[in-house]
Automatic annotation (TrEMBL), chain A:
Annotated source species: Thalassospira tepidiphila
Molecular functions per Gene Ontology: DNA-directed DNA polymerase activity
Domain Exonuclease: 44-218
Pfam entry (one): RNase_T
Top EC class, one word: transferase
Keywords: Exonuclease, Hydrolase, Nuclease, Nucleotidyltransferase, Transferase
Protein name (Swiss-Prot/TrEMBL): DNA polymerase-3 subunit epsilon
Enzyme Commission code(s) on record: 2.7.7.7
Domain of life: Bacteria
UniProtKB/TrEMBL annotation, chain B:
Domain Cyclic nucleotide-binding: 17-118
Organism listed in the record: Thalassospira tepidiphila MCCC 1A03514
Stretches assigned to the CBS domain: 160-219, 225-281
UniProt keywords, alphabetically: CBS domain, Repeat
Keyword Zinc: no
Name listed for the protein in its UniProt record: Cyclic nucleotide-binding protein
Length: 229, 622
């Protein structure tokens, strides 16, 4: 972990941004963050996936969010949520092709601000779980700054990073596509999934995460700290 | 509902007993589930451990062992464990260990009980497994067990069909596999020190634990065998064996006497018992003298059919066995007629046509038959005798339960009680000068099989029919025209086209729109290629060798035939179990999504091969 990241993740910095935060982000910071010394079994995770119009949080927008909560290393399907977001600009053709979300689908959808008001309480006290987390962190962080006056700080586990560590530890050479969610799931004897909906991707990542933890420690007693990014 | 949750619902719909739940219930189910993942070799549950969920295996597999380490069951995708805990205050009864990396869906106890409370068929499935209501399950099984099917009176030792095939535990996987292949067995007993039992190995183990795992064939069999298999004593009853296998979800059961293996029984052995009971029924018919008495035996055919289907018989098995009983009743009535009217003045042969001829009868059958007399027949001298004989048998069959053929295609009709020369004339005319009316008769008279009497009378006639039909392209084209008049109930978008209105609103006629078209296609290929068989399976297998149909096409059609036939039989068995009169009208909603999609595939196979038929033979007449 770089020095800059250490500072950004520090308690001090958190206290600092908490004072600047407004609205639902303020409430989010009122809940203490997940304790990195607790076991994974005792930690709650929110597996989250975003679909966006592009890769640049400064230019591009979130079009949908999907999440599911993991408690006691069990994916709770009753907590599933899937929200379409009304973008401020017209959807580009390439984004429509990738996500199959059309302008007409999102005409009556909530704004990103409203969506975050719903999401942030779900994230409070939990660990963010995502496959390639920089996208989620980048877009949510940008939105938080824009609407609620402060960046987003959240302990995060990235299934892609865990997979990368597994491959490095095994000493095998990396094959192309080896870090793709569907490849990784297949390697852990998880069922195939149909991608391209934020929720289905979030659920797919949550299954992979359970498998990755089971491989490290079937009882889930390892400390959260050891798997944080 | 999101795509992912829809996938979970689809998964559940494909697995028993969840397929018994209505769609709205099953679609609401994923939201109540959670998912957990276990590495291979993880102990998921131990006896007395708290278990507040029913576990449904999504991927992977588990092993259930009782507290003494005795193997009880091996479960795989779509199967459930933790059932006993649902009925024992949330305490697990057995050890559950994963054999592979496994993802499980967990259904909370209260949701499980809400479902079992609401849906009796769902509840029945688990109650039996859970043992909570085993007693009532036993009673139910017993009440099904009529006088003919005395599983209770047959000893396990009587079920052992062949010498035990076993191998010493020092053998390699390769050697074990080779032995299984050579002996054509699906299961091998692994022994130690001569006849001590070390374990058991099945073809499923070869698939799941060797091939799928990329394991070396040089490893010892002990690496993949199941230790301490559950076994049964030779002095126990067949019923116990069936119960043991059903309860533990296993297909092979070693028979042990004083710690030594003496044999192996499989579900197939038990199936053979079911057909044996048919042999017993046929034997009984042969001793009776009154049609009313025979009717009582034949009245048990629906019950027999249900047993057969539930024991896993194919539709071909079932058709064959059920037809055996019609043949027995026919032959017995002919014997009685000869006793009453004296020996026949000239030789004759009684022929079965239609489904009895093809040996494809089901729970409901009317009679199709005819009589062929020797050419020495003289109507003035002998006509009266054969009329009395035919009336006696046809009336008798009607009383026994095989109702009169609505088309009067029976030996009691003068036209269908004729000497060989007249039959030759008939067939000549039908083949040489086909017309729509005569083609209607083909489906019955081109599927003839001798049942009783001088069978050689039919042989010459049969040869003539085969050789004439083989060479006549015009006749073939007419047959095709007739065959294509039976439409498959599939719309342009592969949706079911159902019957509308009337008594059978929103149903599919599995006989006329499923079975009959395949029978027709098989008949044409058989006749055009000089194949003598009349059974549809035999016909389709025989025509694979000829160019009029592709090997793949014939195989696909065989699969489609089996699937549609068994779906029809299961539908009839459900009706029988509900105390209804069996019919051919199926509501597609009563099937699981998986079965529905299979049925659509089967129908499209027929549609394709009907098209190919027209291409190969042309089409005329209709």
């Amino acid at each position: 972990m770089g020095l800059r990241q250490k500072i950004l993740d520090s308690r001090l910095y958190r206290d600092f941004i908490q004072r600047k935060a407004t609205g639902p982000l303020r409430t989010y910071y009122d809940v203490p963050p997940a304790d990195p010394e607790r076991s994974v079994m005792e930690t709650e995770f929110i597996a989250l996936d975003l679909e966006t119009t592009g890769l640049d949080p400064k230019k591009d927008e979130i079009v949908s969010l999907g999440w599911v909560i993991i408690r006691q290393l069990s994916v709770d399907f009753s907590s599933c949520e899937h929200i379409l977001v009304r973008p401020t600009k017209e959807l580009s053709e390439s984004s429509v092709v990738v996500h199959r979300i059309f302008d007409s689908d999102v005409a009556d959808a909530p704004s990103i601000e409203a969506a975050l008001e719903h999401l942030l309480p779900q994230m409070a006290g939990r660990v963010l779980l995502s496959h390639h987390a920089p996208i989620e962190l980048g877009f949510l962080g940008q939105a938080c700054k824009q609407f609620f006056g402060a960046p987003l700080q959240i302990p995060t586990v990235d299934t892609l990073v865990l997979a990368l560590r597994d491959i490095r530890r095994s000493g095998e050479t990396m094959k192309s596509g080896a870090l793709r969610l569907d490849t990784l799931r297949r390697n852990h004897n998880l069922p195939p999934f149909r991608a391209h909906n934020a929720l289905s991707d979030a659920i797919a990542a949550s299954g992979l995460f359970l498998a990755q933890i089971a491989k490290r420690d079937p009882k889930g007693e390892l400390e959260l700290d050891r798997i944080l990014r | 509902m999101s795509i992912e949750l829809e996938e979970i619902a689809e998964f559940l719909k494909q697995h028993h007993p969840f397929d018994l739940l209505p769609d709205e219930e099953i679609n609401a189910l994923p939201k109540r589930l959670s998912a957990r993942y276990f590495r291979a070799g993880t102990k998921v549950l131990s006896p007395q451990e708290q278990c507040l969920h029913l576990y449904i295996i999504r991927t992977g597999g588990t092993e259930t062992r009782d507290p003494n380490g005795q193997l009880l069951a091996r479960l795989s995708e779509g199967e459930c464990f933790g059932v006993r805990a649902m009925y024992q205050n949330g305490r697990a009864a057995n050890n559950i260990t994963t054999l592979e990396d496994s993802l499980c869906y967990l259904l909370p106890e209260k949701d499980f009980h809400a479902l079992t409370g609401k849906y009796p068929q769902f509840s029945y499935f688990f109650a039996q497994m859970g043992g909570e209501r085993l007693r009532s399950g036993m009673q139910l099984l017993e009440s099904r067990d009529d006088d003919q099917l005395k599983l209770m009176s047959v000893k396990v030792s009587d079920l052992i069909a062949r010498e035990l095939v076993s191998i010493d535990k020092s053998a390699s996987i390769l050697e074990a596999g080779q032995l299984m292949s050579k002996e054509r067995v699906s299961c091998l007993l692994i022994t130690e020190g001569g006849d001590g039992v070390a374990g058991i190995m099945t073809d499923r183990d070869l698939r799941n634990r060797v091939i799928a795992k990329g394991r070396s064939y040089d490893e010892p069999v002990t690496a993949i065998m199941t230790e301490k298999p559950i076994s049964i004593d030779p002095d126990q009853y067949a019923f116990d064996a069936l119960l043991t296998m059903t309860r533990n979800n296993i297909r092979h059961l070693p028979v042990m006497k004083d710690g030594k293996a003496v044999g192996m029984i499989t579900t197939n052995n038990l199936l053979a018992r079911q057909s044996l009971s048919a042999v017993y029924m046929a034997g009984r018919i042969g001793k009776l003298t009154e049609p009313e008495e025979m009717a009582k035996v034949i009245a048990q055919v629906p019950e027999l059919l249900s047993h057969l289907i539930e024991a896993g018989a194919t539709s071909q098995n079932a058709g064959h066995i059920v037809t055996t009983l019609s043949d027995a009743a026919t032959a017995r009535l002919l014997q009685l007629a000869e006793e009453e009217f004296g020996p026949p003045p000239v030789p004759y042969v009684w022929m079965a046509g239609g489904s009895q001829g093809r040996q494809e009868q089901t729970a409901l059958s009317d009679q199709d038959n005819c009589l062929i007399m020797d050419d020495a027949y003289n109507a003035d001298q002998h006509g009266d005798y054969f009329k009395k004989l035919a009336d006696f048998v046809c009336d008798g069959l009607n009383k026994v339960g095989y109702v009169y053929c609505p088309g009067e295609m029976m030996a009691r009709t003068d036209e269908w009680r004729q000497p060989v020369r007249t039959w030759q004339h008939y067939f000549n005319k039908w083949i040489e000068q086909p017309e729509p009316k005569s083609l209607m008769l083909c489906s019955v008279w081109f599927d003839l099989r001798p049942v009783h009497g001088t069978k050689s009378l039919f042989e010459d006639l049969h040869r003539m029919i085969i050789s004439k039909a083989k060479d006549n392209r015009i006749f073939q084209a007419y047959m095709v025209g007739n065959a294509l008049s039976h439409h498959v109930p599939l719309g342009f978008f592969k949706n079911f086209v159902m019957i509308r209105g009337g008594e059978h609103d929103k149903t599919l006629d599995l006989k006329h729109n499923g079975v009959v078209p395949i029978v027709d296609v098989a008949r044409i290929h058989a006749l055009a290629n000089g194949v003598e068989a009349v059974n549809t399976y035999e016909r389709l297998n025989a025509v694979k060798a000829f160019p009029s149909i592709s090997n793949q096409g014939a195989s696909d059609l065989l699969d489609a035939f089996e699937f549609i036939s068994i779906t029809r039989l299961k539908h009839q068995v459900r009706q029988i179990r509900r105390g209804e009169k069996p019919d051919n009208f199926l509501q597609p909603e009563s099937l699981s999504a998986f079965e529905r999609s299979h049925l659509k595939d089967a129908f499209s196979v027929i549609k394709n091969l009907q098209g190919a038929l027209e291409h190969a033979f042309g089409k005329s007449g209709t």
